[in-house]
């Protein structure tokens, strides 16, 4: 066999070495690639772990924010729908409407959240409440017209408050109360009469789950009159009690009181369940008043000492301890209104002349040609507080708060000046109606000249009570002027040119003239005219004065 040449062997060896080197290179590249791949996998796993950890922290943070948000929004937006009594109050109804109408804007039709500022719990509440909104707000005859506003029977306004209670209106305790048509009728009417021999038997009868009135004639005889549901009427109850049957909580009015603490220090003479108003649910929505209200047990008890009697037709009737007095103005509540005669209303709604004193057991004479039907401008006295009834129609003719604000701005725009200091005077805004301002107008009550506050004519021997007017030298009280902010007390929309004396509340001439001739009950058997804005007894020949402003010199 022939030997291969040396150069051929060298070439074969070179090829083997080259192949071995390329294998080593490929192996090294593969190892490097595996290392890179392992690093990438490890990096991805670390990234995922960090991402999960970040998501966990984010969710925990969102949970904390959500809980805080829920707690805050629950406090702010939660509206109780547990009772029909709660939804009957117009302010709560308005809050519910605003809340429910605002929430859907933050959510898409598919239910996805668009605005994180609205908490989920509120949406859940709204979803539940929205289903019952029509049932809660509207009566059956209104359900087909969702845009129709609830029927308003009228408003009760407490005399002696200038637009709100001293410390603000809260819940059922406020200076005015609107009566709206209820979602479901809650009126009652007399039904079965039971004559029980013992109080225990009477108690057993009256403990049924329905309204009743018990008349205790003696220790051995009690008459119980059961009341049944009336689907044609709505009932509203007024009294001092804060229990759930009372729709409008009324406390004693203290003339000129600046805080509720002043009114609470006085021993109340208002009954806990003073009276009830029954409104017809159908036009013309007649409102009638009755003495006494049903308590939490749906009962009215007239004890042995209460005035009570049997009527000619065999029915029972009676009067409450301090009585419920009503006065209907003649010619309605207008510029031409004149005061009517005060009468007493019985438990069954009959009309009587006044007793000798508020708590006398002997009733007055029955007035057969008068009824317990309330009309625009009727006054209701509860022996401690007097309420003004305004019908919805009457309120539509009454100046609004915006109108009164426009009149205030018109007076200020005229730039009245103080004749002594020549400084410009201005009535403060409605919101600051109880705070004396440095530009506040002051008036001399004997002459009506309007000034800014000054010390001119203040002599020590007069003890600061009377001052001498620099314009006419007449001596008399010197008081700040306040705008009357309660529009319901106005009989017209005239300019505020007159002021009550001695309080200084300013309103139109016709309004001051009307209230100055209205005798309001005071105590157990006296009457006197008073300012409707603060309940101060009026003084002077007329009880009011015409204001004389000094115009700007330029």
From TrEMBL:
Transmembrane segments: none
Region (Disordered): 1-60
UniProt KW Phosphoprotein keyword: yes
Pfam families the UniProt entry points to: Pellino_FHA (PF04710), Pellino_RING (PF20723)
Amino acid composition bias (Basic and acidic residues), ranges on this chain: 28-37, 47-60
Comp. bias intervals (Basic residues): 16-27
Keywords: Phosphoprotein
Domain Pellino FHA: start-end pairs: 146-406
Gene Ontology terms for molecular function: ubiquitin protein ligase activity
Domain Pellino RING residue range list: 411-554
GO BP of this protein: protein K48-linked ubiquitination; regulation of Toll signaling pathway
Similarity section: Belongs to the pellino family.
Listed name of the protein: E3 ubiquitin-protein ligase pellino-like 1
Source organism of this protein record: Ophiophagus hannah
Protein encoded by which gene: PELI1
């Amino acid at each position: 066999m022939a030997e291969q040449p040396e150069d051929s062997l060298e070439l074969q060896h070179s090829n083997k070495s080259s192949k071995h080197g390329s294998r080593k290179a490929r192996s090294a590249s593969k190892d490097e690639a595996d290392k890179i791949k392992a690093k990438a996998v490890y990096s991805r796993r670390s990234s995922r772990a960090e991402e999960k950890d970040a998501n966990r922290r984010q969710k925990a943070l969102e949970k904390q924010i959500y809980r805080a948000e829920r707690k805050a929004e629950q406090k702010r937006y939660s509206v109780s729908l547990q009772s029909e009594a709660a939804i009957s109050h117009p302010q709560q109804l308005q809050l519910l409407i605003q809340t429910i109408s605002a929430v859907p804007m933050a959510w898409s039709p598919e239910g996805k959240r668009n605005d994180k500022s609205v908490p989920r719990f509120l949406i859940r509440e709204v979803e539940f409440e929205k289903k019952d909104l029509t049932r809660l707000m509207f009566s059956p005859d209104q359900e087909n017209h969702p845009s129709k506003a609830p029927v308003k029977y009228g408003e009760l306004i407490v005399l002696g408050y200038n637009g709100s209670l001293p410390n603000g209106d809260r819940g059922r305790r406020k200076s005015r109360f609107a009566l709206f048509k209820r979602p479901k009728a809650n009126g009652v009417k007399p039904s079965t009469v039971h004559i029980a021999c013992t109080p225990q038997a009477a108690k057993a009868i009256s403990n049924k789950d329905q309204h009743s009135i018990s008349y205790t004639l003696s220790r051995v005889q009690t008459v119980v009159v059961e009341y049944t549901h009336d689907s044609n009427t709505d009932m509203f109850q007024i009294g001092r009690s804060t229990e759930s049957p009372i729709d409008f909580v009324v406390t004693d009015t203290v003339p000129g009181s600046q805080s509720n603490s002043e009114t609470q220090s006085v021993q109340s003479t208002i009954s806990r369940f003073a009276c009830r108003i029954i409104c017809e649910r159908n036009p013309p929505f007649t409102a009638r008043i009755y003495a006494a209200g049903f308590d939490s047990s749906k009962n009215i008890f007239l004890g042995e000492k209460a005035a009570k009697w049997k009527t000619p037709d065999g029915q029972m009737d009676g009067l409450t301890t301090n009585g419920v007095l009503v006065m209907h103005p003649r010619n309605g509540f207008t510029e031409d209104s004149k005061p009517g005669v005060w009468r007493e209303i019985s438990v069954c709604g009959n009309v009587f002349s006044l007793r000798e004193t508020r708590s006398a057991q002997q009733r007055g004479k029955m007035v057969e040609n008068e009824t317990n039907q309330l009309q625009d401008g009727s006054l209701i006295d509860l022996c401690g507080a007097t309420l003004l009834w305004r019908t919805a129609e009457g309120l539509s003719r009454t100046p609004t708060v915006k109108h009164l604000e426009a009149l205030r701005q018109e007076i200020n725009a005229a730039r009245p000046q103080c004749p002594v200091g020549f400084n410009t005077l201005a009535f403060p805004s409605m919101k600051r109606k109880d705070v004396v301002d440095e530009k506040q107008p002051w008036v001399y009550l004997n002459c009506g000249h309007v000034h800014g506050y000054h010390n001119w004519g203040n002599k020590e021997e007069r003890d600061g009570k009377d001052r001498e007017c620099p314009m006419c030298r007449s001596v008399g009280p010197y008081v700040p002027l306040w705008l009357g902010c309660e529009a319901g007390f106005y009989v017209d929309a005239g300019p505020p040119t007159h002021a009550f004396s001695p309080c200084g509340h300013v309103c139109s001439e016709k309004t001051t003239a009307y209230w100055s001739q209205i005798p309001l009950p005071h105590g157990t058997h006296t009457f006197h005219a008073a300012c409707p804005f603060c309940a101060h007894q009026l003084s002077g020949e007329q009880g009011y004065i015409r204001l004389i402003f000094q115009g700007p010199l330029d």
